[in-house]
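INTERNAL AUDIT FORM
Audit reference: QA-55
Scope: verify that the stored structure record matches its stored sequence.
Auditor: D.O.
Record contents follow.
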Amino acid sequence: MLVMRFLVLLLLALSTGCASVSSFFSGNDDPLYSTEGDENYRKGVEALEGKNYLEAGKYFEYTRTKFPFLEVAKEAELKLADTSWEQEKYVEARDRYQNFVRLHPTHPKVDYAAFRGAETHFRDIPSDFFLLPPAIEKDQVELKGALIALNEFTRLYPKSEYQEPAKKIIADVRRRLARHELYVAEFYRKREKWPAVVNRLSIVQKNFPGIGFDADVAFGLHQAHVALKQPEKARDALAFFVEQFPADEQAGKAKSLMAKLPAPVPPSAP
């Protein structure tokens, strides 16, 4: 009797073990896939909307690989990029969006993919989290990347519905880049590193005119050139500001400063 009971227990243990092993190798953690591509895609969208990113990614990947010749496979590719985006995996999302643009240049949503891919640079800029240095002090690589990518987007897709959002981000990026240059210029000004001040302010004057920093740039260049004993260049900086922005409320101050500079020396006769 004891032997019989032992054999029964042994068989139960073995059957349970086999079931576990079978479960492990059969991937029971996977969703219940459908035989229809559209249905898998629909379930993926539902999972994404419910922020179940792991399940969403599985449905979209299954749709993409098992139904490659259906139109829904392309939609699944795009949703895989959106899934990475929603998880703030912006480098991964950028790769997916760019691959979609490269593989499907005539797809109706190619402009959406191009815009999102460009926007990932902006989303990936340094934050102003209170434990970290302000974003203005940090590396500006992603901001510069955003400016290049978004300008390229507006050039390639002039009729896209995403033109206006792209232009708004471009304006924001330009202001941020200009503020960074002004921040660095101020750093050098406090240390009286005047050539470095001129270099940084000249970048703003050349690349970011008309966005609200023109007076600061003109007066900063004036101060730096005066300190470098370059009155002609100081006059030129103020004159350029007055000429380009005559209606600016600071134009009168610029003219007043110009009047206080030494008179220009006439060129010598040959």
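Auditor finding: record pair retrieved intact. The chain has three domains: 36-87, 88-177, 192-262.
Action required: none
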